[in-house]
Amino acid sequence: LNISVHYWCILWKNTLWTTKFMEKFMVTFEQLNVQNDKITELSNVLIQLIPERSMCDNPVTEELFFRYVDHVKDHLNIGDKNLYANLLTHRDQSVKHTASLFLSGSGEIKRVFEAYLRKWCNHKELRTKNHDKFVKETEDMFRLVLRRIEDETEHLYPLLRGVNINASVAA
Prior knowledge:
Helix content is 81%, strand content 2%.
C-alpha cells in the first residue's frame, strides 16, 4: 500500500509539472490571433506615418516601427518553435507538405526581413536617407508579412485545428 501511495504521489507531481511545462510552451489560437492583430494594427498605423518625411523621422514612429519588428520576429519564432513539429511528422502526406511549405516560407521571410532591417536600421534607430526607397521597401515588407498572416489564418490554422484534439490549442 505504501508503495502504491508513493507511486501515485510521484505520478501526481509529475503530471502537475508536465501540465505546467506544457502550458508554458503551448500556443493557443487566441494568442496567435492577438499577435496577428497587433502586427496588422501596427502596419496599418505605420503605413500612414512613414510616407510623410517629418512623421517618419519622429521618435514615436520609430518606437512603433521597432515594436512592429519585435512582434513580427516573435510571431515567426513562435511558429517555427511550436506549430510545425507535429505537422511535419503527421501520417498524412498533405499535412506534412503544407507544414513544410509554411516552414520554408517562414525561413524565407526571416531572411528577407533581416536583410531589410540590416539595410534600414542601426540597432533601434532607422536610417532613412533615401526616404522614397525606404517607404517603397517598407510597404513591400508590410505586404509580405500581411500576406503571410492571411495564409496562416486561411490555411495553417484550419489545418492545425483539424489535426489537434484540443481545438483551442495550436501547438
